[in-house]
Amino acid sequence: MNPGIWHGGLEYKVPISVLSRIGTAAFLVPTAFSAPPVATILPSTKGQTGYTQGGQPKVSFSVILLMMYFPARLEPKMFSEPTDCQPDRERCIVHSPSRMMQIYSLKLSQIPIDNKSVELYGYIAVRDYHDSLLNYIVNRSRDDPIIVHQGSLIPMTGPKRGISMSSTVLLEFDMRIKKGEPEENDLQLIDGASEICEVTAPMHVYTTRIEGDCGAVDITSALVYEAVEATIEVVVPEVLSGFSLSLSSLVLIYGSRKEIQLFHGTICESCALRRSVIAVGLKFKIRRKGSKNGLERYCSFKAANHGCARRQIMLDIASISAKVTWSTDPL
C-alpha cells in the first residue's frame, strides 16, 4: 500500500507538504475512521512574514511562485500535430505518454452553517514544471460567486491544459465565502498551497481534505503514468427543442472508473460548450425540457499520442458533435 492514502477506512500518512501563502512551513495531519487525510496549515510567525525565525530571508522556489498570480501561458494541444515524428505519426517514438495529474472533483465538505447554501468565490490552481503561472482548476470572482451547500461539488472550470507530473506540482488555493458588504465581512474558507511530489503521490484515485478557518474542501485526484492530454470540444449545432444536458467524462485508471462532470445545464439554441482538458470517455445524459424522463448516450475514444477523433450523436430534439484532440506532454 502506498503511503498517503485513505483506503478502506484505514489511515496512512500523506506525502504532501503544505506551504502557507507567506511561506510558513506546514504539514498534513492524518485522520482516522471516516474522513480523508487532512491538510493543516500552520499559522504564520507573527512579525516574520517571509522570513525564518532567525530573521534570514527564505529562499524557496515554491514561495516565490506564490507571488505570481498570472494565468498559465501554455495552451493545450501543443503536440497534437507534430512535424518531427519518427518513423511516422502512428508509430512515433519521439513523443510518448508521460506522468500527469488528473483532478476528478472538488467538494465543499464543510461550512460553518449546516443545511444552508453559501456564495463561494476564489480559485484553486496548479503550477507545474512547464509553466510556473497559474493553471486554474476553478476561478470565480467575488462578483460571480458559485452558490453551493455543504456536500456540493464545486464546478471545475479547468485545467486550461494537462498537468504534468514530471516533477513536483504546486497546488494553490484561496477560496472565500461571500457574506455581503463590505468585503471585509467575507469568511476565509481555505488559503495556502500544497506541494505534491511526483515520487510519493499515490498511483490510484485518492482524496485529500484541505481544511481552513471556516470549512474544508475535498480534492479527489490521481497520478497517472503513461498519460496523454485530451482536449474535449462539444458543439450543439442544431436544436429543435430545448433540453437539459449533463456531460461527463468517464475515466478508467488502475481498474477504478471515475466520472468527471464537465457540463450541466439547459440547451435552448445551438452553441459550443466550454472546452475541457481531461482523460476521456464521454457520457451524455439528455432530458427533454419539462420531462422527467431522460436518456443516456455514450461516445468512446481510444487514446492516441497525436491527432484527433470525432463522434456525432443524432437525436430527434438536437444533434451533438464531440471532438477530442490528443497531445503528449511537452517534456
TrEMBL record:
Domain DUF6598: 100-323
InterPro entries assigned: DUF6598
A Pfam family assignment: DUF6598
Tree of life domain: Eukaryota
UniProt-recorded name of the protein: DUF6598 domain-containing protein
Species the sequence originates in: Brachypodium distachyon (Purple false brome)
